[in-house]
Amino acid sequence: MDGKTSQKFKRVKSNGHLPELTIPNLYTEIKKNGILYPKVVLAQAILETGWFTSPLCRDRHNLFGLTNPRTGKYYEFAHWSESVRAYYTKVQYKYKREDGNYLLWLKKIGYAEAPDYIPAIISVLKML
Question: What 3 state SS string does the chain have?
Fold first, then answer.
């Protein structure tokens, strides 16, 4: 992350207008954006970021490992809440209730490359 982006984030974080990244704040943001299966999506963010500790989360505010399909590079967001909106516009908008079980749908669309992704999500869900 360049110095300009880093300073911008520091200002955003300190101005008090945007929420800090916590599990309750993230869950609220997920629900506020009308995302279906908010606990599953919360578990995805926790798993993808290693409980909000990954460099992708800390440096790029990308909670879901979202990549640009044209470049293959990870998206960078000014604030983590933008990542939540992007999850809806880049992933969940494709889901239709008739697609069935959301976890199976994630597997079907190839959301994650790890073969144990769904069991890992279920494991995090059990902790919530």
Answer: CCHHHHHHHHHHHHCCCCCCCCHHHHHHHHHHCCCCCHHHHHHHHHHHHCCCCCHHHHHHCCCCCCECCCCCCECCCCCHHHHHHHHHHHCHHHCCHHHCCHHHHHHHCCCCCCCCHHHHHHHHHHHC
